Input
Amino acid sequence: MSATLLHGFPPAVDHRATVLILGSFPSVQSLANHQYYGNPRNAFWPITGELFGFDADAPYDVRLRALQSHGVALWDVLHKCRRIGSADSAIDPKSLVANDFGELFASYPAIARVYFNGAKACELYRRLVEQRDTDRIDFQRLPSTSPAHAVRPGAKLAAWRAIS
Output
């Protein structure tokens, strides 16, 4: 694969974090917008807005602060990878570099619950991240908020209620 090596975002986290939501890697639109879940068709912001009572159409920094005020942090499993397009299936498996979760969990020890935004994030984490010293953390996979993951109306929101 001749795609450019892409770099993800730093974690959106502060000292109040008790919950971490992990995606796989930002979409093309997210990277271009420099925003987590920057594709307006992604259900992430409408779902979390509903769960935590904020306007999903508010400016990005307002939405991030709203999540953080509820103890929710965002990050992705991958720090770097090569991918053409936005599909998880297009990620070059030879290019995967995971984020440093040991450092994150050491720096933010109140994180006790990790939710994977979809199957790919869960699979990548389990395959690439060493899970030492994480006995205190509960891990759960949720349905992807991606527009590519089609489920019946309301099913994603119902499953995502686990984070609130």
